[in-house]
Amino acid sequence: GMQTPEKATTASNATKMLDLGGLKPNSTEVERILTVLEETLAQLELSSLIPRVIEALDRFADVLGPEITNHLKELQRLSNEMQDLLPSSEEKDRVGADGQAACLCSLQQRLSSSARGVLRLLRASPSLCQALKHEAVARGSPAEAFIKAFREFRNFVLERLLTSPTEEERKVQFLEDISLQIQRHAKAVGALQAELAAATRTREQEIYKKDNVIRDLKSSMQDLTTDCKASIQNIKEEGAKKQEEELEASQERCARLQQDVQQLEAQLNALVLEHRASELALLKRKRRMETEIFNWIQKYDAHMEEKQAEYEEVHAAYTEEKNQLSLLMERRALLLQEYSQIEEERRKQEEKEERELEELNTLSRAATRIQAFWKGYLVRSLYSSKLKKKKKGKGKGKGKGKKTKK
């Protein structure tokens, strides 16, 4: 029949394995056997993923599609029925055992058919199978153990198929050589064990000698311990003597120190009495100084109250004068403004008077000149008329009459 894409991939994998082994498939039967083993291994791996996918069916629903999801739900339902039916079949009596077995066999056939249908749909989509292998990695330990055992079986069959008769003979010969080497090695091990026993005996003798030496050392240590005890006793006696001597000396020192302490206590009592008298004098002085300080504080407070009252009065007068000053300054500003206006008007008036006076002077000078000119003119005209009267006669008089008419 025609190969599916998954079967073609499995066959190519088997061929690659043969190529990697350094041998080529020498018959179609070898390729078929390897293809069957590879397909079985792939179906086992995919079947071990189905329970994991069914447990998380909601998460894989979008990846699987509606058809595969419905088949998985049907497979889950049949599996639940099988689980419910198995305990009840164990509890049934022998009368209904045959009917229960027939129902269980039918349910098992439907479950197997449903599982094959799911595997067929999954194998039709290699990319979906790869995605499920990445997503649903965890498998149950029994399934994983079975897959591992089947993979080892596949490798063993592959090794057997790739081994030629000549290589088989070489392998048998190699095993025989190995067995001979094992025998030779066993003889060598026996000889080594004998040498080890001899070395062990020699070492035990050496250990016995060392034990004797240790016993001698122990006896010498005991003697040394006895000598040490005697020396320790002597040291203790000498220490007791020294302790008595040191005790007597320390008692004498304690007596001297006790006398010194009594003398120092007497000096201390005298100093205490002296210091108490000085303390009483200082206390009286302190109280007197406190009284004086209290009086000075009261005087200072009274003086400060007077100064505060005086300051408040001065401050009130100052505030009043300041307010009056501000009013006077405002009036001064107004008066200055009025004064500036009056000065401006006075300046304008003076300028106007100066202009009028200048115009009057100009007019008076002009009038004086005009009058002088007119007087000169009259004088010249009278003088000229008198000269004409002398020179001319009546005609001249008519002319004059005409001029006067004019």
Keywords:
disordered C terminus; cell projection; flat; flagellum; single chain; 406 residues; disordered N terminus; mainly alpha
Describe this structure in words.
93% of the residues lie in helices and 0% in strands. It has 406 residues and is mainly alpha-helical. Among the domains are: 25-84 and 102-162, no CATH class; 323-366. The protein is flat, with a radius of gyration of 75 Å. The N and C termini lie far apart (167 Å). The model is unreliable at 1-8, 14-25 and 400-406 (pLDDT under 50). InterPro entries: DRC10 (IPR042815), IQ_motif_EF-hand-BS (IPR000048). Its main location: cytoplasm. Residues 1-22, 386-406 are annotated as: Disordered. It is found in: Cytoplasm, Cytoskeleton, Flagellum axoneme.
Secondary structure layout:
Blueprint: H1 5-20, H2 28-55, H3 57-64, H4 66-91, H5 97-123, H6 126-135, H7 141-162, H8 165-391, H9 394-405
InterPro entries: DRC10, IQ_motif_EF-hand-BS
Region (Disordered): 1-22, 386-406
Keywords: Cell projection, Cilium, Coiled coil, Cytoplasm, Cytoskeleton, Flagellum
Brief synopsis:
This protein is an all-alpha fold.
The run of helices and strands is HHHHHHHHH
Roughly what fraction of the amino acids lie in strands? under 5%
- Count of separate DSSP helical elements: 9
Uncertain segments are: 1-8, 14-25, 400-406
CA gyration radius, whole angstroms? 75 Å
Instruction: Give the termini distance in whole angstroms.
Output: 167 Å
- Secondary-structure-based class equals mainly alpha
Shape: flat
Please summarize the sheet with the most strands: none
| Average pLDDT metric | 80
The helical percent reads over 70%
- Give the total of beta strands: 0
Organism: Jacana jacana (Wattled jacana)
Coiled coil: 240-366
Keywords: Cell projection, Cilium, Coiled coil, Cytoplasm, Cytoskeleton, Flagellum
Family: Belongs to the DRC10 family.
